[in-house]
Amino acid sequence: MNRKNVLSIAKHDFEQLIRSKIVWLGIVVLTVYLVYEWHTSSQHLIGSAWSIMIDPFVIMSPLYAIGLGYTAIAGERASGRIRLSLGAGLTRPELVAGKLLSRFVTLVSVLWLPVVIAAVIVTVGWQPTEATAVGFLGAMVVVTVTSTAWLGIALGASCSASTQLRSIAIGGFLVFLFLYAWQSILELLMFVQTGSTDLGIDITTGLVDIFDPAWFPYAVRVNPVNAFEATQWYVPNLLEALAAGETIDAAHGPNLFGLAMLLVWGTVPIAIGYYRFIHAELE
């Protein structure tokens, strides 16, 4: 794999993306939405401020990541441009690596720019007492890792599918599964084991360390949505505690597992899609 070719592909793709009106519209919409959401919830910003303020990303992360990722390779195949690229001396691994780099940089830019703008407006305008810099850093780590997980899913689907329609169908199915069906599946399994689906606790909070059955807090965090909802509290609180020389009473095992699962979702689908693309017959 030639590094110059990878960077050339990434640079060209990034330039194409930032010229897109849809990308800039996404930045504007997200900025306005965040300022509105944060302003309306400003009365709740005492304690774990940034944990509350990144709530919108439970929906925004998959939407933006899949929107950026599903055309990466499938779009090249559908348009026929991939044959021109490969005919010009580029290899399939270089194409995947370049697309991955450009889409990741674009996604981080699309998410971080509105967040920074909105954070400045909220901090200056409403001055949430607990909105610390360390908490902000922790929140953005969670947003970035979660968005990378969804981008990995989208890019994996794009590499695996021969058309954009199939790519978006795969991504849409996984969004539906994780947003709406995963909890019901796990509760059914838990009912089979225990005869009840009522735990009597918040299964996603990072501030609870008593779980029954023991496998449930881990299984629920296989879902990137639940992993995000847990780590959005766990990571900022943990970093703020470490910065203050304190400790937190949290479920470290399940929450670290959830963070690891986000990294898995950001890499394994790409690896599977890469393998399928490398061995695919191009039409």
In a nutshell, what does this entry contain?
The protein is 75% helix and 0% strand. The protein has twelve helices and no strands. Helix 1 (3-18) packs across helix 7 (92-126), helix 7 packs antiparallel against helix 8 (133-160) and helix 11 packs across helix 12 (252-278).
What features would you describe in this structure?
- It is a single chain.
- The protein is mainly α.
- The protein has one domain.
- 75% of the residues lie in helices and 0% in strands.
- It has helices at residues 3-18, 21-40, 49-53, 57-69, 74-79, 81-87, 92-126, 133-160, 164-194, 216-220, 224-243, 252-278.
- Helix 1 (3-18) crosses helix 7, helix 4 runs parallel beside helix 8 (133-160) and helix 8 packs parallel to helix 12.
- It is globular and about 55 Å long.
- It starts with a helix and ends in a 5-residue tail after the last helix.
- Mean pLDDT is 79; it is low at 206-210.
